[in-house]
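It would be a great kindness if you could assist me with a short task in structural biology. I am sending you one protein, given as its amino acid sequence and as whole-number tokens for its backbone shapes. I would ask you to consider whether the tokens describe a fold that such a sequence might reasonably adopt. The full record is reproduced below for your convenience.
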Amino acid sequence: MEAQSVDLNTIHVGEEGKDLCIVHGLFGAGSNWKRIAGYFTPDYRVTLPDLRNHGDSPHTEEMDYRSMSGDLLACLDSRDADQIAMVGHSMGGKVAADFALRYPDRVRALVVVDIALKQYPPMHEHILDAMSRLPVGSLEKRTDGDTYLAETIDSKPVRAFLLQNLVRADEGFRWRLNLETLRRQYDIISSFPLDDHAAHQRRNEVPALFLSAEKSPYLKESDRPGVLELFPNARFETIEGAGHWVHAEKTEEFVEMVRSFLAEC
């Protein structure tokens, strides 16, 4: 049974050209990709959704790939977007791949950025713990949040990324993210629904690009056979000198590689 879709908060960049949907990763939001989207206009009209439990989209109990793909389908239907180029980063890459497998007639090209289609071990529990412990209601300014998070999260860029989700409330601040659901459903988020996409049942021969970052452990050469089981026409490229946030660290290389690939499709 299909889960009930929710009405995703969405940013639209550009009103002309082919349809492109960019899907953010865990703890992110569509607004994180607005600058990147600008590089693709006027050739594309770009849809930047906030996934459920992220950004300004609704909070829900469910947080699985079937549900997130269903949300995207409703979002893109409302945009009259049919033959879509899908780009997804990290968790958003899994969502984009899942969408392509569930709705193959809607996707003309797929770009998955620095994620494999597999179960990952716990990697974000310390982040979820730190965010949950943050006394958001008593904070006076955002920099106070950074001071708290610095006790357990060493990376200042990571803290800055997370704190984009901290918004002012009637008293202090609040998280836009639904931390309770993210914590409860973390094992599902870390996985990929391979049982739904067994190779003999669901394969998609859409042109696909799987982009890895040289300094990131997320997408390895050993992950490629699993990708090819589901996307036999996938190709693999690596952006040198980049970490997991490859689009922010190596923007020009990232945009050029994605644009060149989409131009072939």
Q: What stands out?
A: The beta strands are 10-13, 18-23, 44-49, 84-89, 107-113, 166-168, 173-175, 208-213, 234-239. The first strand starts at residue 10 and ends at 13. The first helix runs from residue 34 to 38.
